[in-house]
Design brief:
This protein is 66% helix and 3% strand. The chain is globular.
Length: 342
């Protein structure tokens, strides 16, 4: 019998045969005898945490609240690295002179010229963005999986990809105005473009209209979908595979290991879209109303022509330096919140 507070009363890590209730739960798996040294009877090992077992029991409200806490904490801690990443992605644009020699130099330069507050530019719209995007993305993921009939431990990878793609894409689209204001405030070294977060929203809406508020929605949604397709399923797959292989133990160790792997994988595939998104959102519209970039593919083409293919991975290491710890913080806080709620 299973207890959320104590786990299974018997069969965990023993050589005795597991009862059918354990195997049907999808939380435990029996290691085949041939894979155990000496041909001994296979062991029954836990695949997922108790929190994962309660996915169907948690309400959507609990999932969204857990996700909101997780992403808000992560954003406040990692915003300085995000500011460095944005500056590196924007510098040298279409052949312009570079200001920074790398992530460390950018961090020091911003700190020296703009003070500590310079590293936290755009914090308010960043937290607001995550309250919409991150909360929807992580909060709806398990709920969408449930709607797809994905229960227990044997979940087809395509269902994870579909659920995460929809959750990430929809969440990012809703949060585009916050993302746009965040990037413009982070890119503004002089701090003269907007007086405050609210004035930024008002000015963008007045000068560029509702359409301008969603400028860069294409690369933003593409980036989020690619990130969600790689991060969440990879996290799930790596965690279950690593636990089954005995590489890590269930709990905080598996959360950290899986988060680092998922963060690296998603950062690599998201970076080109991140560069395009940052440039399209930050661009100044000319007096004639003509933008520098007309869309995602136009930005890719002009960037590659002027700066080479490698320019699409500008800011990769600061991006991973941020996303790695950020993903760890999110998943660790999220898992702990789930444990508390379960």
């Amino acid at each position: 019998m299973y207890s959320a507070s104590r786990g299974w009363k018997r069969g965990v890590g023993r050589t005795e045969s597991p009862d059918q209730e354990m195997l049907d739960s999808g939380l435990y798996r029996t290691t085949p005898a041939w894979s155990v040294p000496g041909g001994r009877t296979g062991r029954t090992t836990r695949v997922f945490s108790a929190a994962s077992a309660d996915v169907g029991k948690r309400s959507a409200g609990q999932d969204f609240f857990n996700s909101w806490v997780s992403v808000a904490v992560a954003e406040c801690i990692t915003i300085p690295i995000d500011t460095v990443k944005v500056r590196l992605m924007l510098q040298g644009e279409l052949g312009a002179k570079k200001q920074y020699n790398g992530g460390v130099h950018a961090f020091r330069t911003i700190l020296k010229n703009e003070g500590p507050q310079g590293l936290f530019k755009g914090l308010a719209p960043a937290v607001l963005r995550q309250s919409i995007y991150g909360t929807f993305r992580y909060g709806s993921y398990d709920q969408i999986k449930n709607e797809l009939g994905a229960t227990g431990g044997n979940i087809p990878i395509w269902k994870k990809v579909l659920a995460s793609c929809f959750a990430g894409g929809m969440g990012s689209f809703l949060a585009v105005p916050c993302d746009l204001v965040k990037i413009r405030m982070q890119a503004d070294a002089a701090g003269t473009r907007y007086k405050s977060t609210m004035s930024a929203f008002a000015e963008v809406a007045k000068k560029e209209g509702v359409k301008g508020m969603w400028r860069g929605a294409g690369p933003t949604v593409s980036r989020a979908a690619v990130g969600a397709m790689t991060e969440l399923p990879v996290y799930d797959e790596v965690k279950s595979a690593a636990i089954n292989a005995g590489i890590v133990q269930p709990g905080i160790q598996s959360h950290l290991f899986s988060a680092l792997c998922a963060g690296f994988f998603s950062t690599f595939w998201m970076n080109p879209f991140d560069v395009a998104k940052s440039r399209i959102m930050n661009q100044h519209i000319t007096a004639s109303g003509s933008p520098t970039y007309t869309g995602l593919m136009d930005c890719f083409g002009k960037t590659i022509k002027s700066e080479g293919v490698a320019s699409l991975w500008k800011g990769f290491w600061p991006a991973y330096t941020r996303i790695g710890p950020r993903v760890i913080i999110i998943f660790v806080v999220l898992e702990q919140m789930r444990e508390i709620n379960s």
